Each structure stands twice: as C-alpha cells, then as structure tokens.
Amino acid sequence: MLAGVNTGDTTTINLPAATRAPVAAVGPTMMRTTNQRVILDLLYARGASTRPQLARLAGLSQPTILAALAGLVADGLVREAGRPEAGIGRPAQLYEADPAAGCALGIDVGRRWIRLALCDLAGTQLARADVANPATTSSDLVDAIAGASSALLAEAGIDGPPTHTAIAAPGVFEKSRRAVKYADNVPEWQRPGLADALREHVGSAITIENDANLAAVAEHVQGAGVGASHLAYLHVGSGIGLGIVVDGEIYHGASGAAGEIAYLPIGVDPDDAVAPARGLLEERAAADSVARYAVAAGMPADVSSADVFAAARAGDGRALVAVRTEAHQLASVVAAISAFLDPELILVGGGVGQNLDLLQPALEERVAALTPLRTPLAAATLGEESILRGALVTGLRAARESAYTGRTGRS
Which residues form a coiled coil (predicted)? Predict the structure, then answer.
C-alpha cells in the first residue's frame, strides 16, 4: 500500500475557461475542429450542459452543435449525462466531457519527499501520495519517481501510463541538455538526458517546470491570486525563487530563467560579490540565513528557522531581531519586484514566507524607505501543497490537449 494514498478524494481542479478566438472558415475540417474544441472547453469549464445551452454560449447553431457533439462522442471525449429532472415536457439531453478519456499526474520532488497526485480529465483527484525520497543519484531519482508513479496509478485503478505528467523541479529546465540547470543544491537533477529517462520510465509525455512557477500557477488558479492578471509569487524557504504570471500565463523569459532571483546581488558589497553557485540573495535571505541571524542575536547554534519564528511569536527578543533582519533583506527583493514587474499583487509563500504576518510590519517599513512604489503583499494560501497543485494543473491542461489530438488525430 502506497503511503498517504487517498483514492476517491473529491478535490477538483477548476481551470479558467479557455478562450479560443473564432477561426476563419478556410475549410470544413478546420471549422469542425474549431467548433469541437470550443464545445469541449465549455464542457470542461461548465460541466454537464444541454445542446441549447452550448449553442447560446458558443454562438453556434444547434445543428452545428449537434454535429460537433456527435464527433466528440464518437471519439470518446464526450458522453451523454442523462436529462435534468425539472422542467415541462421532455428535458433536453445533457452532455459532459468524459473524465475517463485520460488522466494527469503531478509530481513534486523535494529533498526528503516525493509528493504525487493523479486526476481525471474533469480535474477530479483520483489519488494522492507522499513517499520518502531515497535518491542520492540521478538514476536513483528516476527510479524513485517511476516507482511511486506506477504505484499511484495502480492504487487508482488506472491501467497504463498517465496521459501527461508534470514534474516540479528546482532551477531551470534546459531543453538542449534535457536536464535542469541552476540547481546546485540538488545535483541529481542536473544529469544530461534526465528528462528523457523520466519520460521512458514514467511512460508518458512529461513537462518539467520550475517549482516556484508551479506554485504561482496554483495560487493563480486556486489560491490567493485568483482573479489577478499580473501576479508575482515569492517563494522563500530553503531556497528563493519567483513565479511570474503575466496575462494569466507563466512568464519564462528567453531561456526559462525569469524568476531566478536567488542570483540577484542584493545587499552585497561589490568587493564581496564572488557569485556563489547557490546565489547571493539566497545566501542572505533563505531559511538558513534566518537561523544565522538568530544565532548572531544570541539564540542557540542549532536553532532552525522554524524555531526562530515560533520564538518570535512567543515574544523572544532575539528571535524578533532575526525576523526584522530577514524582513529588511526581503524588502529589497519586494522593491525590486515592484520596479521590474509592476504586478497587481505579490504573494509570499514557502517555509519562511508563510510567516508573512511576522515579517510584514518591518518589511513594509523598509520598503517605504526604499521606494515610492507600493505593491500589495499577501500570504499565499495553499502552503506546501502549492507546488504539487501547480504540477497537477499544468499536467491537466496538457493531458486535455493530448487526449483531444490523440483521439481525433487533429491538432
């Protein structure tokens, strides 16, 4: 039995409705494809609907809707879902996207744990598990991910590989090497060809995405960032990263390194800027820095960042000094994010960031001294589940696309 599995969980991912612009009618095949995709997106977003409802929402005639639905039913992407009980006369037939037409797997690989979740194409979670991560090499990592994935699929009763798998990683996925770079804290991720090995062992197409980006995706779709078009998610834990959402989509930059703010030379004397592989900002503002500030203030040498925040909540003066020092470091980051990105909202998460209530007074005081720009700050709400949820959202989007193209033969 896989530890932590929760089959039958009713958690559902509700993705924002896709907006497909009308396409010029250059031929009947293109029109049919466009109509089908519009209808399928509506069924994913709204759930079971009748032909008249779909006609009104899509702006299409009922004969067009009928033809498109017939094709989707024949391809196994849509199914009949009964009839409403209320109403005068014979109620109209309901249709829904067939949730069993595929499935998506999301994976968050941490230093100690591999977290996995599986959902059908309706976004309903089928299974969830946390398993220990024993990997010390890249080969171990591939084997651990593949083994945990197979066990989760078996627990959920899925015969075969997932339709798509999204995996959270530190650093930046480099397509040319098919591996992750800028992940010196977790060297097993940096093996060339790692992505191909994962795809072979997991058995499906995969997406490897930065963990802060995935947390930003989750907060944008399900968390504190719902409704924001321009959002920055600042992750402060054992590492530091930034997920950037622009017009509802993750912004990656030219090489995928947008948001790698661990390398910002903030608060560094130019003579001391030796550019460590870990990143200068990360050296000064990640969780271990909070512990160092606390030790410098007189706390025991073995104190952890979690201990520091707990002591600060209890009024320990030494811990409060450390929290204030950390807040001043983060204020420079917040000021830089506001100036460069001008987001509607900056969400703060991670093991350190989840203590925003303690950090915020000194942080905002320092920001006011640094810049006239004022971007609202808020605590992320999804906690340690945010990265996994973001992976599941990303995997679900890709799985729906793959299911459509695979079953219809059209892109």
Answer: none
Q: What is the helix (H) or strand (E) element at residue 106, kind and residue range?
A: strand 103-109
Domain boundaries, the chain: 28-100, 101-215+387-408, 226-381
**How far, in Å, CA of 148 to CA of 114, rounded?**
8
Helices and strands per DSSP (H, E), number in the chain:
13, 15
| CA–CA distances in Å: residue 300 to residues 108, 234, 291, 297 | 33, 29, 9, 9
Amino acid at 249: E
Residues 264-305 pLDDT 10s? 887 666 565 555 667 888 888 999 999 999 999 999 999 999
Which tens digit of pLDDT belongs to each residue from 46-62? Answer: 999 999 999 999 999 99
Do 101-215+387-408 and 226-381 show the same overall fold? yes
Within its chain, how far is the Cα of 74 from the centroid? 33
Instruction: Return d(Cα 270, Cα 274) in angstroms, integer.
Output: 9
Per-residue pLDDT of 191-206, as tens digits, reads 778 888 888 888 889 9
Give me the pLDDT at residue 2, please. Answer: 41
Q: Superfamily assignment of 226-381 in CATH?
A: ATPase, nucleotide binding domain (3.30.420.40)
Assigned token pair, 209: 């995405």
Q: Is 285 helix (H, G, I), strand (E, B) or coil?
A: helix
Structure tokens given for 403: 């299911």
In the CATH hierarchy, which fold is given to the domain comprising 101-215+387-408? Nucleotidyltransferase; domain 5 (3.30.420)
Sheet architecture: strand order including 230-236: 249-250, 240-246, 230-236, 345-349, 377-379
Q: What DSSP state is assigned to residue 321?
A: H
| Rounded distance between C-alpha atoms, residue 194 and residue 378, angstroms | 36
CATH dotted code for 28-100: 1.10.10.10
Strand, helix or coil for residue 163: coil
List CB contacts of 410: < 8 A, sequence separation 6 or more: 29, 33, 404
